[in-house]
Specification:
Blueprint: H1 9-13, H2 21-46, H3 51-54, H4 56-103, H5 109-129, H6 143-149, H7 155-172, H8 178-203, H9 208-224, H10 226-233, H11 236-258, H12 271-285
Helix pairs in contact: 2-10, 2-11, 4-5, 4-8, 4-9, 4-11, 4-12, 5-7, 5-12, 7-8, 9-11, 10-11
Length: 287
């Protein structure tokens, strides 16, 4: 995730970061500019007195309003997904900290180290599970724990199961009371709830037909835009169409980037940094 100063206007205006939509779309901008210029030339050359073309401005103004509404809905939906993902990772920070604090005065020696490792392992596997998956060799595990987790295709759930088994064993030994067990179980349940919410965001993309329609709508609108503006602006209508294309498609590109916020793109959530914070706090509490 890019950190920046939102009050530094000029540095943002003249910045051309690799995530800038202009750098993403520059080839398409050239193609659309060339095509729009061709359309303008054809209309000026072969239909110089087509009065009906001048009346298209009102139609394109109405269509532009409709596209604006669609893009507002599109970007708001994508940002809602990004923000919900951020809230769930914020809840994860709180729940892991609360779990570690509650376990700290109760556990000693091996049990203490076990939960220190497993809380960190859970967050690591959750982070990587939402990206491309992880391997057991990436985790801090004993041989017995590795054998247990080899039976689970869903590693975060397997690690959570290990913690539940150890927690129940501590309850049966009388190390933790019934009330403590219920409180700790609640924290562990919320870890899985956060994971489930993030999986829902990742595995439920914007419907294909909606995305397809919006892209086609923008393309047809922009490529035919010179028809309405040639009689007023001449060849400059190609420049107008290109600029409109850049604005509209940039909104769609931004929405596509943030609707899955758990990857490694510049505008995705800083899950690596959040994991490091959770790891450091957990190790400090349960050291």
């Amino acid at each position: 995730m890019i950190k920046y100063n939102p009050k530094s206007w000029f540095s943002l205006i003249f910045a051309f970061h690799k995530s800038d939509t202009f750098r993403v779309l520059w080839k398409e901008i050239i193609y659309i500019g060339a095509f729009s210029l061709l359309v303008a030339w054809a209309e000026i050359t072969y239909f110089p007195k087509a009065v009906v073309m001048e009346k298209l401005i009102a139609v394109y103004s109405l269509i532009g309003f409709v596209i604006s509404l669609l893009l507002v809905f599109r970007t708001n939906t994508a940002y809602d997904r990004w923000w919900e993902g951020r809230k769930k990772w914020g809840e994860l920070v709180n729940d892991t900290r609360n779990l570690a604090v509650k376990l700290s005065p109760i556990l000693i020696d091996e049990d203490r180290k076990f939960f220190e490792r497993m809380i960190v392992n859970f967050v690591w596997t959750m982070k990587e599970h939402l990206r491309k998956g992880t391997k057991l060799n990436d985790l801090e595990l004993s041989e017995e724990e590795k054998k247990y987790l080899e039976q689970h295709s869903h590693l975060p759930a397997g690690i959570s199961s290990l913690m539940y088994l150890r927690l129940r064993a501590l309850k049966e030994k009388g190390i933790i009371s019934e009330g403590e067990y219920i409180a700790l179980e609640g924290n562990m349940n919320r870890l899985l709830d956060s994971l489930g919410a993030c999986e829902r965001i990742k595995n439920t993309p914007i419907p294909y037909s909606y995305s397809l329609f919006l892209k086609k709508f923008i393309f047809i609108y922009v490529t035919t835009l010179p028809l309405a503006f040639v009689h007023t602006f001449g060849y400059f209508s190609a420049l107008i169409a290109t600029f409109v294309f850049y604005v509209l498609v940039s909104m769609e590109v931004l929405a596509e980037e943030i609707e899955d916020p758990f990857g490694t793109d510049d505008n995705d959530l800083p899950t690596d940094q959040i994991f490091e914070k959770i790891r450091d706090v957990t190790k400090e509490i349960l050291k």
